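Hi W.,

Here's what went into the run:
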Amino acid sequence: MKRALPLLLLLAATAQAATSAPAPYRQFDPMEDYLPHVKGDMSLSGSYKHWKDPANLDWRMAGNPEENWKLNWKFMDPPFNASVHGGHFAADRGEEIFHELNRKAGRTGKFATCLGARKGNLKGLRSQYPMYRKDLRHVAGLEEVIEHCAAKEGRELQNGSYDNSAVSVYVASQSTGMPIKINVTSAGPLKSAYERGRKVFHARAGRINLACSSCHTYQIGLHLRGTVVTTPYGDVAHYPVYRTRYQLQSLHLRFIECNLATRTQPLKPGSQAYTDIEVFLTGLTNGYPVSVPSERD
Amino acid sequence: MRISRSFFCFFAFISTAWLATPAFSGDFPSDFAVDPAVVNMTLEPKVVVNSGKLEWVPFSRDLTPWVSLSYEDKRPAARPRQVKLVEPLQGDPVRGRELAIARDKGYCIVCHQLPGEQWAGTVGALLLNFKKHNYPNELVFQQIFDSRVFNPISVMPPYGTFGILNEQEIRDLVAYLQSLD
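Here's what came out:
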């Protein structure tokens, strides 16, 4: 026993050293300060003045490929875009599934309550997501909560699947026109997630060593082949979105598309890093109206 | 006697801990979209209309060797690396142009303008008439190999350090750029 004691102590000390090992080397872009409100774009790209009123966009800019980035593609959102597209079909499908789950015998209204609706009213719910969920014990986006609540009603709606995003589109469409409002400035889990998200946004990764901010903070308005880089402000108001070249796409699926395009190993929808970026980008969309159903090319 | 045995255990423990860190030993972070059973382990999602399941299909490339955004990914990223070009250059400008346009090689036109290419990017410096700058080969080689040596926040991919291009390919690119009148 006497002999084993120093050995045990040493082992404990090295185990401690192993768990508190220094963070691995990572490269970060310069950490920009952002205003957690959509008007913060005026000190980043300045394009906000062209898209702050989604009902009155300059249609001439929308039709000009050199200028449409200044509208932050809001000409594809309602009310400016009044056409019927795949996003509307998704909203219909989502409504069907929502009522199916919300009217289960003996559990009427439980699904809506689980999503966070007060007295079954979905109005304004989307504006409050992502939020801290006591039952999940972490900050979660709407799609993760839909998966969680649907499972309670005995239905599998995987995060990122068409039906999950369809329910999300339906729930969000009940808040169309209402400004996004999440509190990322008071101390709490949401603020921590926002700060982590800001850090991930500036973290270089992948085969070509890029961070989100490498383009979307420092190269806004410049060309990358045929596309023009847009601002990170006000960008999450229209998700999940109908992609004409893809399908219904949740925000986390969009992150996967970004990762693949920049040759970075993608993560699963609902992963913590993605949720943190979602919180960060939603903070930068505070004050901008939910714009669903929407489409993008 | 007691001390020496303890020290032996100490070193044995430390060395195994160090050996375990660099690469994934079969266990990927739990949030990676991967299937270790397929050749290109990276997966991409496929949305199936009117389904509650998200399908995953193999992506065209394996992206697992490079650092990701996962919090569980503890691999260090490759640091900036200074290299020395041994002259003569011996690059092939024709091959260099092919590499500059190839999607999975240089793909310089995403950010840079090159003669004869439409829809060039505007992020990077103009490369038209590159020869007039009279840059030494060594400088151009280092800029392509790892530009972070000159500018720590450069957004240009470190083609050499990250293994996107090999040394000869970078020599070909340098030869191509130095040939642009």
